[in-house]
Amino acid sequence: MLKIILGILILVAIMIIIGIICFNKFQFTIIKIDEAENNIDMLLQKKLDLMKKCQPIVKKNLKDVEFMDDIESIIANKMNHFSLHDYLKRNYNELFKILDDNEKLYKKKNLISVIEDINENELELVAAIKFYNDNVVIYNQLIMTFPSNILKIFLGYKKKDFYNNEKREIFEILKNK
Fold first, then answer.
1. SS3 assignment, position 108
2. pTM of the entire structure?
3. Which of 8, 22, 59, 81 could form a Cys-Cys staple with 148, CB 3.0–4.6 A?
4. What mean pLDDT is reported for the chain?
């Protein structure tokens, strides 16, 4: 009888240790994802501000070009990170298409200065998104794999989204293994 009780206690202790390890993995990954989201939020806001600086310069020099005409409604709607990133990415690409089509804008020093800042911001944003996506892969793997998937039930953790389809495809491949 004593051996059975001792065996049950050892089994319970092992389960508690595994639960604590899984919980700590979740917490560590969640902290990293939160940090990445804060960085992305800051970088997206900076990119939005820089793009807003470009708009009047482009509009002043090219009267017939539509560029970020809906910016005020975007600001008022307070988009989520994913939507704001997509919006800014589209307008970023549109800005460079406008620049390629209108060489006279390259002579505007104030515009070139802002574009250099935007490019620098874009590099930082790409790095922050990669950090976020890498940690979301880890988080989603924890949710899908044993024994941490048992813990997710009790803690109510849900899958998180990525910033691009490439990472989603990688996760689906890993999930199906």
1. coil
2. 0.78
3. 22
4. 83
Q: Please, are residues 152 and 143 in contact by the beta-carbon 8 Å criterion? A: yes
Confidence label for 114 from pLDDT (cuts 50, 70 and 90):
confident
DSSP percent split of the chain into helix, strand, coil, nearest 5: 85, 0, 15
Burial class of residue 158 (count of CB atoms within 10 Å of its CB; 0-12, 13-18, 19+): exposed
Inter-CA distances, 80 with 35, 39, 75, 140, Å: 16, 14, 11, 20
Peptide bond into 56 cis (omega under 30): no
With residue 95 as reference, give the H or E element that holds it. helix 81-101
Total length of the chain: 177
pLDDT of residue 60: 77
Cα(51)–Cα(118) distance, integer angstroms: 8
Residue 167 banded pLDDT, cuts 50, 70, 90: very low
Task: Please report which helix (H) or strand (E) contains residue 69, including its range.
Answer: none
What gap in Å lies between CA 143 and CA 153, rounded to an integer? Answer: 9
